[in-house]
């Protein structure tokens, strides 16, 4: 469900940026967000992607990682994804220290067997964040 909301394809209009804003509003956010990091995007996307087009090879190139895309829309989707977003989420388990650039990455980690956060038992800050997200969406 979180991945669907992050995709920006949900009829509700929810997208990754809005989901991050809602997660940051949760009273538990200090336990799973990296203090002092901005939630702002690294690049604002405008409709003209021509500066990223290589006319000789006929592809669009990401200005951050150099990955090539056959269409401008593909590059725009890449730039709007979490690919180059800062790692603003952290595992709330003090012994873990893993960081993530999306809510879904954090949730998948906590749901895995590698984490003792307690999502399956209904306790813990991530379970509380999930309840908050679903109440707000």
UniProtKB/TrEMBL annotation:
Source organism, top-level taxon: Eukaryota
Record's signal peptide: none
Transmembrane segments: none
SUPFAM superfamilies per the UniProt record, alphabetical: beta-beta-alpha zinc fingers
GO molecular function: zinc ion binding
Keywords assigned by UniProt, alphabetized: Metal-binding, Zinc, Zinc-finger
Domain (C2H2-type): residue spans on this chain: 60-84, 89-121
Annotated InterPro entries: Znf_C2H2_sf, Znf_C2H2_type
Pfam families per UniProt: zf-C2H2
Tagged with keyword Cytoplasm: no
Protein name: C2H2-type domain-containing protein
Organism encoding this protein: Xylona heveae (strain CBS 132557 / TC161)
